[in-house]
Amino acid sequence: MQHTRSEGRDLRLIKPLLLGLFVFLTLGVTIATETLTRFGLEDNYAIVFSVAFVFAVLILSRNLIMIGIVLLGVVVINLPEATLARYHLDQDLLLALVCAIILVPTVYRMVFK
User: Is residue 1 over pLDDT 60?
Assistant: First the structure.
Protein backbone atom coordinates (compact mmCIF):
# COMPACT_ATOMS: atom_id res chain seq x y z
CA MET A 1 0.00 0.00 0.00
CA GLN A 2 1.39 3.37 -1.00
CA HIS A 3 1.23 6.42 1.26
CA THR A 4 -0.07 9.56 -0.32
CA ARG A 5 0.93 13.10 0.51
CA SER A 6 -2.37 13.80 2.24
CA GLU A 7 -1.83 10.88 4.65
CA GLY A 8 1.57 12.28 5.61
CA ARG A 9 0.06 15.72 6.08
CA ASP A 10 -2.72 14.26 8.23
CA LEU A 11 -0.12 12.56 10.45
CA ARG A 12 1.74 15.84 10.88
CA LEU A 13 -1.50 17.49 11.98
CA ILE A 14 -2.56 14.74 14.37
CA LYS A 15 0.81 14.39 16.14
CA PRO A 16 0.83 17.90 17.74
CA LEU A 17 -2.82 17.55 18.70
CA LEU A 18 -2.15 14.26 20.46
CA LEU A 19 0.90 15.73 22.24
CA GLY A 20 -1.19 18.72 23.33
CA LEU A 21 -3.98 16.49 24.59
CA PHE A 22 -1.49 14.32 26.48
CA VAL A 23 0.17 17.33 28.12
CA PHE A 24 -3.20 18.86 29.02
CA LEU A 25 -4.59 15.67 30.54
CA THR A 26 -1.50 14.63 32.45
CA LEU A 27 0.65 17.60 33.37
CA GLY A 28 -1.85 20.44 33.09
CA VAL A 29 -4.64 18.84 35.10
CA THR A 30 -2.25 17.47 37.73
CA ILE A 31 -0.47 20.77 38.31
CA ALA A 32 -3.75 22.72 38.28
CA THR A 33 -5.39 20.32 40.72
CA GLU A 34 -2.42 20.38 43.10
CA THR A 35 -2.17 24.16 42.95
CA LEU A 36 -5.89 24.80 43.41
CA THR A 37 -6.11 22.24 46.24
CA ARG A 38 -3.77 24.47 48.23
CA PHE A 39 -6.33 27.29 47.83
CA GLY A 40 -9.38 25.08 48.48
CA LEU A 41 -10.69 25.38 44.91
CA GLU A 42 -10.28 21.76 43.78
CA ASP A 43 -14.05 21.21 43.52
CA ASN A 44 -14.53 23.92 40.89
CA TYR A 45 -13.85 22.00 37.67
CA ALA A 46 -14.17 25.05 35.41
CA ILE A 47 -11.26 26.72 37.20
CA VAL A 48 -9.23 23.48 37.30
CA PHE A 49 -9.56 22.92 33.56
CA SER A 50 -8.93 26.58 32.77
CA VAL A 51 -5.73 26.61 34.79
CA ALA A 52 -4.78 23.23 33.28
CA PHE A 53 -5.24 24.66 29.81
CA VAL A 54 -3.02 27.64 30.63
CA PHE A 55 -0.31 25.37 32.03
CA ALA A 56 -0.53 23.06 29.00
CA VAL A 57 -0.18 25.98 26.59
CA LEU A 58 2.81 27.34 28.49
CA ILE A 59 4.46 23.91 28.62
CA LEU A 60 3.84 23.22 24.93
CA SER A 61 5.43 26.51 23.96
CA ARG A 62 8.71 25.00 25.18
CA ASN A 63 10.78 22.13 23.85
CA LEU A 64 10.62 18.44 24.73
CA ILE A 65 13.31 18.79 27.41
CA MET A 66 11.06 21.26 29.25
CA ILE A 67 8.13 18.86 29.00
CA GLY A 68 10.33 16.08 30.40
CA ILE A 69 11.50 18.21 33.33
CA VAL A 70 7.93 19.21 34.19
CA LEU A 71 6.79 15.58 33.87
CA LEU A 72 9.54 14.51 36.27
CA GLY A 73 8.50 17.27 38.69
CA VAL A 74 4.86 16.15 38.56
CA VAL A 75 5.87 12.56 39.27
CA VAL A 76 7.95 13.66 42.28
CA ILE A 77 5.12 15.87 43.58
CA ASN A 78 2.76 12.89 43.53
CA LEU A 79 5.06 10.64 45.54
CA PRO A 80 3.72 9.59 48.96
CA GLU A 81 4.34 11.98 51.84
CA ALA A 82 6.56 9.42 53.61
CA THR A 83 8.85 9.14 50.58
CA LEU A 84 9.14 12.91 50.27
CA ALA A 85 9.86 13.23 54.01
CA ARG A 86 12.60 10.60 53.76
CA TYR A 87 14.42 12.78 51.19
CA HIS A 88 13.59 16.02 53.07
CA LEU A 89 11.42 17.34 50.23
CA ASP A 90 8.38 19.53 50.74
CA GLN A 91 5.45 19.02 48.38
CA ASP A 92 4.55 22.73 48.38
CA LEU A 93 8.12 23.71 47.54
CA LEU A 94 8.23 21.17 44.70
CA LEU A 95 4.93 22.48 43.34
CA ALA A 96 6.28 26.04 43.44
CA LEU A 97 9.43 24.88 41.64
CA VAL A 98 7.47 23.20 38.85
CA CYS A 99 5.24 26.26 38.46
CA ALA A 100 8.33 28.48 38.34
CA ILE A 101 9.90 26.27 35.67
CA ILE A 102 6.77 26.79 33.58
CA LEU A 103 6.10 30.47 34.28
CA VAL A 104 9.50 32.18 34.61
CA PRO A 105 10.61 31.79 30.96
CA THR A 106 7.26 33.09 29.75
CA VAL A 107 7.31 36.11 32.06
CA TYR A 108 10.94 36.79 31.13
CA ARG A 109 10.08 36.71 27.43
CA MET A 110 7.10 39.02 28.00
CA VAL A 111 9.10 41.58 30.00
CA PHE A 112 12.46 41.64 28.25
CA LYS A 113 11.66 40.85 24.64
Answer: no
